[in-house]
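Structural prep section.
Before we set up the soaks we want a predicted structure of the protein with thiamine diphosphate in place, mainly to decide which crystallisation condition to try first. Input record follows.
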Amino acid sequence: MSATKKLTIARAMAESLAQEMRADPKVFVMGEDIAQLGGVFGNTRGLFDEFGGERVRDTPISETAFIGAGVGAAMDGMRPVVELMFVDFFGVCFDAIYNMMAKNIYFSGGNSHVPMVIMASTGAGYSDGGQHSQCLYGTFAHLPGMKVVAPSNAYDAKGLMTAAIRDNSPVIYLFHKGLQGMGWLGNEPAAINQVPEENYVLEIGKAKTAVEGADISIISIGIGVHHALKAALELEKKNISVEVIDLRSLVPLDREHIIASVKKTGRLLVVDEDYHSFGVSGEIIASVTEHDHKILKTPPCRITFPDIPIPFTRPMEQWALPSTEKIINVCVTMMENK
Amino acid sequence: MSATKKLTIARAMAESLAQEMRADPKVFVMGEDIAQLGGVFGNTRGLFDEFGGERVRDTPISETAFIGAGVGAAMDGMRPVVELMFVDFFGVCFDAIYNMMAKNIYFSGGNSHVPMVIMASTGAGYSDGGQHSQCLYGTFAHLPGMKVVAPSNAYDAKGLMTAAIRDNSPVIYLFHKGLQGMGWLGNEPAAINQVPEENYVLEIGKAKTAVEGADISIISIGIGVHHALKAALELEKKNISVEVIDLRSLVPLDREHIIASVKKTGRLLVVDEDYHSFGVSGEIIASVTEHDHKILKTPPCRITFPDIPIPFTRPMEQWALPSTEKIINVCVTMMENK
Amino acid sequence: MLPTESQRIWMYRNMLISRYMEERIETIYMEGKKPVFNMANGPIPGEMHLSNGQEPCAVGVCAHLEAEDIVTATHRPHHIAVAKGVNLKKMMAEIFGKKTGLSGGRGGHMHLFDSTVNFACSGIIAQGMGPAVGAALSRKLQNKSGVAVAYIGEGAANQGAFHETLNLASVWNLPVIFVIEDNNWGISVSKSASTAVAKNSVRAASYNMPGIHIEDNCPDVIFSETKKAIERARNGGGPSLIEIKTSRLAGHFMGDAEGYRPKGEKEQLIKEDPLPIYRQKLIDANIITIDNDSALVEETQKLVEQAITFARESEYAKPEEAMLHVFA
Amino acid sequence: MLPTESQRIWMYRNMLISRYMEERIETIYMEGKKPVFNMANGPIPGEMHLSNGQEPCAVGVCAHLEAEDIVTATHRPHHIAVAKGVNLKKMMAEIFGKKTGLSGGRGGHMHLFDSTVNFACSGIIAQGMGPAVGAALSRKLQNKSGVAVAYIGEGAANQGAFHETLNLASVWNLPVIFVIEDNNWGISVSKSASTAVAKNSVRAASYNMPGIHIEDNCPDVIFSETKKAIERARNGGGPSLIEIKTSRLAGHFMGDAEGYRPKGEKEQLIKEDPLPIYRQKLIDANIITIDNDSALVEETQKLVEQAITFARESEYAKPEEAMLHVFA
Ligand SMILES: Cc1ncc(C[n+]2csc(CCOP(=O)(O)OP(=O)(O)O)c2C)c(N)n1
Ligand SMILES: Cc1ncc(C[n+]2csc(CCOP(=O)(O)OP(=O)(O)O)c2C)c(N)n1
Ligand SMILES: [Mg+2]
Ligand SMILES: [Mg+2]
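Run finished without errors. Recording the tokens verbatim:
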């Protein structure tokens, strides 16, 4: 085992990128403000200085062009890592993503590969308003042909980034702003953890049991995992034993892992910062119940963002977001429900 | 009750449009090939001749511009009906749709309205390949601020179109190519039904029980309703009594109607031509089970399009699509499952 | 044509309001964000894009507009909102996220909607261009007066929406004016690194419309140069593209360390600050005196302070009111 | 510079292949679709966009290209695929949806991918432009030879991707050529109804790149006019925009009643059919004789027939193979 050091997710992402760029000249990075500035969210910091402007390219505000270009470069043998600054911006360039990047392997019958990573920031909580705060997990996960990952801590962030870069299929890499460790977007200390210096791969599509428990399975991803972990500590005091599953990846979705946990606990709670309906939470509940609804002792529950645009003002936004308190309350109610 | 006549969905849509345009000078139509050509799918036929090029406007292939323009016109008091020829094309213009059209009422605190309709064709089955065959129901329904409707027959098509035009909120109107009654895209005779000549409104957000039954609730929308209705006839012969619910609208979703039906039958099958995961089918199953998973006698089931791009070649495409046969088989299995 | 005396005072006055407002927002924004800068904190949370230095673009164009005319602005909207006559109190309350704000706090500083003066802005690059074209179409279809003005930054001129909307406006001959505020920066990326041409005004030729380049960040010049374009639109002559060289005196948003600026740029820009220059110009032209300038400054500051007081003293809406106004 | 004799024969030969292929597809497409026309039926189901009349655009440009060069084409791709050297048998089998097709039938006629000759096409307007720019970037980054050519229709020149990709290609000085096949129609909408300028080539000025307008739907002219642009790209001189006036002899897709065409247009276009004109030109120039023309026609038709036979006789993949190749 190599030496480790404590990193933020931002630094873990940048470290993986740097190591892959050193190892493989085909890896390059492009996006808005990712060169000299090091990325608005810090995840490309240092790359421009080390690798220069050819391999670390600031782009015009032309997402359709540079994401489309990513596809062409990937099909020509390169390994582009392309930043979409906020996932909310996907609307100006989604055709290049969902209809081309995600489908060209299929349309080529597997004869072409599209080894491309799109990294995009997600998440609310700091009053950035309805066009800069979304998660959109469900939107990406619903459409075939892209893998979708979202780390909850630096260790996973590095391993998932390395896996994404080395994957011959397109990967959407969603990082939550509240977990980046940037300070100006708040801090989640638990997201900053020990990261091996050497590069390593986390298999995409494998969930992780973040905490074991007996009474309720909480399934979440990204920042929701931290809400759940905090709730687990509080609930322990109430003698409620919660198991927290960090999905880490939505596509592929580790249904076996989820089902195994719910089989054990008999109770399912999904925590998802994305919009409530027609998204992640519905899929997870459906996946469990279509397997066997009788493994459930109580109806499945979900804590999500309601089906409203994300309000700017703090009281409304905080009210609408999933939180540790909401999780505690729902878990208590679930246990009362006999 | 006014006189009725038998119409295709295409003609029912055009009739509603014509009547609303006669009644309200603020209604106008724009999109590609919707003027002289009458729409690739026939749903604007006759409008150009009656109302002329000012109110029935062919556009350049500039979806971002003309959908954005629709939003501006709607906020300025007009009632634009904008065609996106194939729903698959949403990727080039989704920002204008999901981040602006759908959110401007909210961002204005309700002080502005966005009375705008986007109509788009959906659906596979005639080998049009992976960029011209999608349904994307879940994609639109997942994101807040837009109503989403999809008629299964001409009567509903007219009433939903009229409702959509008169609504002060944006409505996505999805019509399935296989139901348009255009001949060159096949025909579904049951979609062609009696339509009152006078205009009328179908409330958006109300599902309909298309056929009553006792054993299994099949929840579907658009063309899936017809697969289900045909299956119901066959299943009757096997003494399986199927209830078919035509959702008609995904946003708002008529959860009460769904739950009431499943309470009665104790069995739930969702039929959805959209992609399997993170979409409509998951949401419906979750909505029922989170209400009370114990109303189910057997695990909920779904018949959907698998999580793959839509293949061109007929054998693969037909194999992947929901069908009457698949419904029959699943229903038989559900009844065997005690 | 030069602006009249009262137009020049109007422009100066609105520049004063806008600038003072930005300065006050700058200070208030930092409340609760020291010693640790966390965007989530303080009475004004979230991103904050200040418009200091760009006021001439706002007043020079909006001086030609009435309330009925439509303006769509960007993520950097305050100066334009002020010049378009958006209610200051409601605007400030919105920036604070209060119930009395333009949308009760649902929008925030990037989403200021005031239908009484036909103003809107948004957070996605070039997003306002389509609605401006659509509003212009609406007026044409209704045979109603009014022109639409879409503001964008020079960075936005490389977004696809730019191309599509200019073409559409031209093909349909609509009363819309596209105004590029060229402050040379899109966050940290300079215009020359992102744009294939030195002047975006040349791109007008792609749409068969006039392209006007304004080199001077001066209200008078902007006023004069844009007058024709707006009159042209009003008279059914169709759209125009106007590009104004201006300067972003602040960072892209608050918290921006601005390390990407070449050495000396900031100092140079501050030297060229259009506000004191315009003040001096008006004094030199005997349009204002030092005395009535002080009075004007005082009066406009008072207006802003009143708006701030209004915003501070207003309540937040109830959190659960978040559920309201999703649909009409 | 004029093409050499062998280049002219190469162009003519590929035009013959392409045209005959389209004619055969036209016939086969209708199998199973009479008396009732239903797209879903017959050996070739789905939409079918024929390229008759546009062959000069394909051969005139592709005559300059090698297998290593990249081409992205549109929903109307056959003539370009032929000229780029896509394997005819595999292409035809793909159009029939057979296991032996380029992608085993997953793509169909709008999604022909042949990585051995770096050819791809797609069904969304202007979608291929980004990948062409990216492939050009890839070559630059790898210091590898090869230019990229993105084909689009004149209707696509109003799509945002056009603007963004031309700008990006220019800013990064990439070896890519954008070719507009201007057949005057985007389905039923004429160029003048959709485009603010008479010539899309003028739009090159917005991107600081050469804009070349070619009035003549003739392989020789296209060859000569495009040569410089391609050499320029190969030598590191950056991108160019080329616009070629051409003609769509068929409907937009099969089944199109073409009621939107002005009276007499179709007849006129058929009179100007570039294939017999080029044949005559080559005969007049003593490059081919009537005799070896017949031989050429026969030989190329045989090639196409072999491809058709191959396609017909090939099996469909197993339906459940639909699940394969979603990921690499
Ligand atoms: C489509 C889209 N891409 C990226 C962004 C992120 N972003 C916000 S402001 C900005 C720079 C804009 O530059 P410019 O248009 O020149 O306006 P300025 O900030 O200089 O006023 C960027 C890239 C966005 N909001 N929308
Ligand atoms: C983004 C998008 N919008 C609309 C369409 C539908 N469509 C297919 S071909 C076509 C016309 C294209 O015209 P042009 O670019 O001139 O190409 P041509 O058909 O003449 O070869 C349209 C509108 C599409 N495929 N993609
Ligand atoms: Mg700028
Ligand atoms: Mg064309």
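Observations: The first helix of chain C runs from residue 5 to 30.
Flagged for discussion at group meeting.
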